[in-house]
Amino acid sequence: MVGCANAPPIPEYAPPENTGGAQSAPISPVGVDLRMPDAPPADAGPTDTANDPLDTAADAAPPAPDQGASAALDAETGADPDAAMATPDAMAPPPMGASNLARVYLLAGQSNMVGYGRTSELPPELSRPQTRVQIHAEGRVDGDLSGHWDTLAPGYGTTLDRFGPELTFGLRLEAANPERDIRLIKHATSSASLWADWDPETGAEYGAFRDHVARALAELRALGKTPEIVGLIWMQGEADALDRDHAEAYAENLAAFVSRVRADLEVENLPVVVGLVSTAPEWPFHDTVRGAQSRTADAVAQVEPVETSDLIRDFAHGDQYHYATEGQRMLGERFAQAWERATPANFDQAADFSLVNGERNWTACSYDGASATPMTAADGHLQGRTPETQVGPGWALPDVDAADITWRAPATGILHVEGEVSDADPTCGDGALVVITAAGRTVWGPFPIGPDAGDPVPFSLDLPLRSQESAVFRTESLGNADCDRTAWRLSAGFEWAD
User: Is the distance from CB of 145 to CB of 137 less than 8 angstroms?
Assistant: First the structure.
């Protein structure tokens, strides 16, 4: 499950005093554009951002919470309009279009990830190197190509005249993102099982994969790059489909594998694309493994399945086990399409709501004042440490814990978010308090929501985030937790820093 962000507590809030029975005027704060000019002002001192696209935020201390928030609240409006527009100076966005970021995709598995496509059967546009994509391959690959970064081209298959899904996967990514520095780390070995070889605890192949990734990332850093791992492509399962016990354990083993990879790489919301195992009769328990892969995709956030049953195997050359040239081409393209589905550019909290907490980078969490805990699925909503703390499609309900709607960045970039907050139970209760944080800093609010505070309260914010940093949309009870359901109309788009 994708984890929660421990955003700072909401500064202590006290409502304005009643000055004669007049109801407070509605609060109407709007957010601010956090973008900065492309170039620093003329009097700015020298800076070194060669290795940190968010250098302006890297060393700046987060602003201290406003301990005088209650005193600043104006009796007429119920809020300080200047505070509504306040933005930490440290929230400078990453430079767009001139960064040293390298986006890294991991490709792992067994022989159909190794690749048996024939280079001689490729059209000219696929036969030449893909100039903007680099690959670092180990496992079953020719020794001359193994263990170093080089330009993606045919030859990274089982022999120098073969290729795998990395070729068209990289080509599609390059076409969609021509300015992006795309890096592939491929580690695949024939006949390797998840049951034994890829077992994160004891498997030799998993250990080799982990060490390979570490070496490849270190080489990128030595080149002055800032690598961000943004996807894992997994094509494996045939070896486990040979044994009933191994096949029946595949769902549990795959979920554990995904969890361990995310933990070892420290990428909690890493999108994982899983190629469903071949339906060839040579794998007698393929239905069991395919079912396990599909169930894992349904139950674990950010896991996307890819169909393979229609891909052409290389019968023409007497190989019934591996995908032929056209099958390998299609497999790589499908992997890229599945990764794109897992990382949409635009999203809406209500429309994209899922009982699989963490899907599409949205995580519902309950916050007890010290730490945040992921919620679990209930009847049409997610619930927290206490059942009364809930998040649903377009709403949050706090109790003794605050209710957090959290979005975690899959890469460095800018989250463009807009919407409004309103009281979903306006006929009762004393309302709630809402705040938005980004990367652990309060960027909007806190504001009271309820009959006496005035609503809806709109917001429009551009929030720069590094990979794995979060924006948190928090709802907290004002005191009486009854009738505190709060409506969040929340839509967003994410712009990658390239």
Answer: yes
Residue 141 pLDDT > 80: yes
Mean pLDDT of 130-137: 90
Beta bridge partners of 435: 474
| ω into 281 cis (within 30 of 0) | no
Residue 408's DSSP bridge partners are 470
pLDDT of 129: 83
**215 φ, ψ (degrees, to nearest 5):** -65, -45
Average per-residue pLDDT in the chain?
Answer: 83
Radius of gyration of the chain (CA): 25
Q: Are 149 and 175 in contact (CB under 8 A)?
A: no
Nearest-angstrom CA–CA distance, 347 and 180: 22
Q: Cis omega (within 30 of 0) on the bond before 446?
A: yes
Q: Token pair 């720069």 is at which residue?
A: 464
Whether the predicted pLDDT of 39 surpasses 50: no
Report the predicted TM-score, pTM, of the whole model to 2 decimal places.
Answer: 0.84
d(CA 168, CA 148): 20
Domains in the chain, please, with CATH?
78-96+345-496 (2.60.120), 101-342 (3.40.50.1110)
Identify the CA nearest to 57 among candidates 437, 440, 461: 440
Looking at residue 4, its pLDDT comes to 87
pLDDT of residue 89 exceeding 50: no
On the CB side of 214, CA atoms within 13 Å amount to 9
Cα separation, 417 vs 438, whole angstroms: 11
Phi/psi at 400 (nearest 5 deg)? Answer: -65, -25
- How far is Cα 38 from Cα 169, in angstroms, rounded to an integer? 33
How far is the C-alpha of 175 from the C-alpha of 126, rounded, in Å? 13
In three-state secondary structure terms, 494 is: strand
E runs forming strands in 99-253:
101-109, 117-118, 130-139, 149-152, 162-163, 182-188, 226-235
Give the strand pairing for 101-109 and 226-235. Answer: parallel
**Strand pairing category for 272-275 and 226-235:** parallel
Pair 238, 283: CB distance under 8 Å: yes
| Strands 457-465 vs 395-397: parallel, antiparallel or unpaired | unpaired
* Residue of 51, 62, 50 lying closest to 91 (CA atoms): 62
Residue 83 pLDDT class (50, 70, 90 cuts): very low
Exposed / middle / buried, residue 180 (Cβ in 10 Å: 0-12, 13-18, 19+): buried
Q: Are 288 and 241 in contact (CB under 8 A)?
A: yes
Rounded CA-CA distance 54/95 in Å is 8
The identity of residue 65, as a single letter, is P
Q: Distance (Å, rounded) from C-alpha 276 to C-alpha 195?
A: 16
